[in-house]
């Protein structure tokens, strides 16, 4: 019985898929691409880089077949879970990135590494929502890179509890890096962010007028509150007794992004 023929995908979708799987830093190696093309019986082509090579091979074969079967077969072969037994974070990253693209053709990569039907999207915002990916939503919200630098591995591991703990640590680390101060927690905030008799060491404004001082104190108290709410309990209580949902994690990381952006423009007194 002949296999079902699937309609060709738009060239930008195929190119974007190749961009994920052939990414310079996070994608397949050139050798892996060659092996997988052979496995799915797609002729290899010359390309300036891995992404162009893969996109060229898939687009050429799709045009010959007048069907997207070759693209579907390549994705399924590349996302076979057995290939990621020692690197589950890599599977999760690629799955998320592919799903943000595949939503434009009403498909998704499921946890078995196979393509399945999913909601379709026409805009980038819809794609980010339908992809069901924390990383997609965080990119849509332009989350501060300092936040992501501390918790990306925990997000890829689908572990919002530990992601919240690591993300909150990013603010304390940033304050220590800015000032060279070795304190931690509330003592660190009181030392460098809370205005005392004069200007705070890390000042987000001139620290002169009443409203300016209130704003400075507000940021300091917000940071101390985040430490108390997320870092201190997470460090001492079992994960079993403290659940952090994806929605709560998104709200926390958005708040931490705001804090980091205020620190981006702060004046630091040595």
> Would you list the SSEs in sequence order as H and E?
HHHHHEEHHHHHEHHE
Number of domains: 2
In angstroms, what is the radius of gyration? 23 Å
Low-confidence stretches: none
In terms of quaternary structure, the protein is single chain
According to DSSP, the number of beta strands is 4
| Helical content class | 55-70%
Please count the helical segments.
Answer: 12
Kindly report the spatial arrangement of strands forming the biggest sheet.
1-2
Mean pLDDT: 89
Write a compact overview of the structure shown.
The protein is 60% helix and 4% strand. The chain is mostly helical.
Descriptive key words:
mainly alpha, two-stranded antiparallel ribbon, 270 residues, single chain, 4% strand, elongated, 12 helices, 2 domains
Written overview of the protein:
This protein has 270 residues and is mainly alpha-helical. The chain folds into 2 domains: 11-137, no CATH class; 145-268. It is built from 12 helices and 4 strands, in the order H-H-H-H-H-E-E-H-H-H-H-H-E-H-H-E. A hairpin with a 5-residue loop joins strand 1 and strand 2. The chain is elongated.
Layout of SSEs?
Layout: H1 11-21, H2 30-39, H3 50-65, H4 69-78, H5 88-102, E1 107-109, E2 115-117, H6 124-130, H7 134-140, H8 145-156, H9 160-179, H10 185-192, E3 202-203, H11 210-236, H12 246-264, E4 267-268
């Amino acid at each position: 019985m002949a296999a079902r023929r699937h309609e060709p995908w738009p060239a930008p979708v195929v190119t974007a898929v190749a961009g994920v799987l052939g990414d310079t830093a996070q994608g397949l190696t050139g050798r892996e691409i060659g092996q997988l093309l052979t496995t799915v019986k797609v002729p290899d082509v010359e390309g300036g880089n891995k992404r162009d090579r893969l996109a060229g091979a898939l687009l050429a074969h799709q045009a010959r077949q007048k069907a997207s079967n070759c693209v579907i077969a390549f994705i399924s072969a590349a996302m076979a879970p057995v290939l990621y037994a020692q690197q589950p974070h890599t599977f999760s990253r690629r799955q998320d990135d592919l799903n943000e693209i595949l939503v434009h053709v009403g498909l998704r990569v499921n946890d078995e590494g196979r393509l399945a039907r999913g909601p379709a999207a026409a805009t980038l915002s819809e794609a980010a929502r339908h992809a069901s990916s924390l990383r997609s939503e965080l990119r849509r919200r332009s989350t501060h890179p300092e936040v992501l630098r501390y918790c990306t591995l925990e997000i890829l591991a689908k572990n919002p509890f530990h992601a919240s703990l690591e993300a909150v640590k990013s603010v304390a680390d940033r304050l220590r890096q800015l000032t060279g101060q070795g304190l931690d927690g509330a003592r660190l905030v009181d030392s460098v962010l809370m205005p005392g008799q004069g200007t705070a060491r890390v000042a987000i404004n001139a620290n002169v007028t009443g409203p300016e001082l209130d704003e400075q104190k507000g940021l300091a108290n917000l940071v101390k509150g985040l430490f108390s709410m997320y870092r201190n309990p997470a460090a001492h209580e079992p994960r079993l007794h403290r659940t952090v949902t994806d929605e709560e994690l998104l709200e926390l990381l958005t708040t931490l992004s705001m804090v980091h952006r205020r620190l981006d423009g702060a004046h630091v007194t040595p």
